[in-house]
Design brief:
Blueprint lengths: L9 H5 L2 E12 L10 E9 H8 L5 H4 L14 E8 L15 E7 L3 H16 L9 E8 L7 E7 L7 H19 L7 E4 L2
Helix pairs in contact: 4-5
């Protein structure tokens, strides 16, 4: 008689290493200086448990982005974006891993709760390598672009944005959209391509 497979214990799942280590960044508003001066790395993680520990300590975009009335604060500061990138890669076009790359982005008005859901499933699809089984993706960003209206931007960054790489980055887009649709159970917004060079 075959024995029944036991479900993995929570501690075993939490300790499960990810294929790549990642870093979570925030971009603060109005701290002075240039882009680099406003960008801060919050943490590094390389396992499922570390990810959830940090993820649950950082506010959802809807908790701090513009909601139609005001921007909220994260502890003592205003945050205009969060990024999760492979460890050692900065969320900036000038980084060696990004400067010949590109991104799929969606900029639109959306319900803040829908933004949270989209952001979560994009991050899970990326770090779990559902979207990219190789090493093409460098990171993702969620950005508050609101002024008077509620506009958010979600971005998936990758290494090669050249025309020759179009089949590969179109495949990333298709896998990303399939991942988001499976996670949300509803249609997802269309993403547009932008090269970084």
């Amino acid at each position: 008689m075959a024995s029944e497979a036991a479900a993995p214990e929570a501690s075993a799942v939490a300790a499960r290493p990810l294929n790549s280590p990642w870093s979570i960044w925030e971009h603060r508003e109005n701290t002075g200086g240039g882009w680099d001066a406003n960008m801060f790395k919050l943490c590094d993680f390389e396992s499922v448990g570390e990810f959830w520990g940090y993820w649950n300590s950082i506010p959802k975009p809807s908790e701090i982005f513009f909601d139609g009335n005001s921007n909220k604060r994260f502890v003592d500061r205003k945050v205009s974006s969060f990024s999760i990138f492979k460890k050692g890669i900065k969320p900036e076009w000038e980084d060696e891993a990004n400067k010949r790359g590109g991104e799929w982005f969606c900029r639109k008005r959306m319900d803040p709760a829908a933004l949270d859901e989209l952001w979560l499933h994009l991050v899970l699809g990326m770090i779990g390598e559902t979207i990219d089984a190789g090493d093409e993706i460098t990171g993702v960003r969620v950005v508050d672009k609101s002024k008077r209206d509620i506009i958010y931007r979600i971005e998936l960054w990758f290494r090669n944005g050249s025309k020759d790489a179009a089949p590969a980055y179109h495949e990333l887009r298709d896998r990303m959209q399939a991942c988001l649709e499976a996670g949300s159970g509803r249609g997802v917004p269309q993403f547009q391509f932008r090269p970084h060079f």
